[in-house]
Amino acid sequence: MRLPDGSAVGGWYGAGLDRDNPPIVGLGSEGDYELLAPSLDGLLAKLTSQQFDNAWSDLKPHDEVEPQTVELAQWLAGRPLGEPATPDDNSSELPDFRGFMEKWSRDREDYWANHRLMAELGWRLAAHLPKGKKPWDRTRFEIAIVGKQYQARVLSHGPQPFEEAASVESLLRDLREEMRRAQPELGLWYAMNFGLYADGRVMPNFEYDLRPTIDGDPALLSEAKADLARAPRPERWVPKWLTEA
Prior knowledge:
Layout: E1 8-11, E2 24-27, E3 33-37, H1 40-48, H2 66-77, H3 97-113, H4 116-124, E4 138-146, E5 149-155, E6 159-160, H5 169-182, E7 191-197, E8 202-207, E9 213-214, E10 217-218, H6 221-230
Antiparallel strand pairs: 1-2, 2-3, 4-5, 4-7, 5-6, 7-8, 9-10
Helix pairs in contact: 1-2
């Protein structure tokens, strides 16, 4: 589920967790993260009791759907025994999502900081190193690759072309193929954005579901389908726009 501020809510299918009824977690648009409920039932119960506020206030039902919210709460309360309508957020058995995310973030930074293609990308784009020297200073780039289509922009007073775009295309395509081989079930990403930091590190993020815009128009569906045919995904992971006729 995508929230209006760009945050995402979904099931956490971690090792050792119940894949049929996973905990529900939130990934905030500002880098925050939280285990929201121990199960889908627990999430629904919290939604109907309007327990979400602050960072997750977008999960609170709107006033105009109050009758439906009450009906859902009544339905949950009437479910058979063994199907709890209220979550036990204080249970010591809840998985440590925060600890998992902190370790994942450290491992991810180490991985990309030592990745050979990212190191070469940072070297080729050295002319764009941020002027500031603080750890969070960065120059941001956005990339789109869909089949034969390609576009690269630097985000400086809006997306702008940059001189090195053509010379890094093969590097970015190599990265795309390497990631496909490492996790074939994900298929190919269509968009990527990354930050170039003052020490030359490149930290990327990838979009597998987004249909990017290239030269002002949505990426060609025929090119995206060619990518899908070459690197198929499970049906449930194919975005709706990619199934258009």
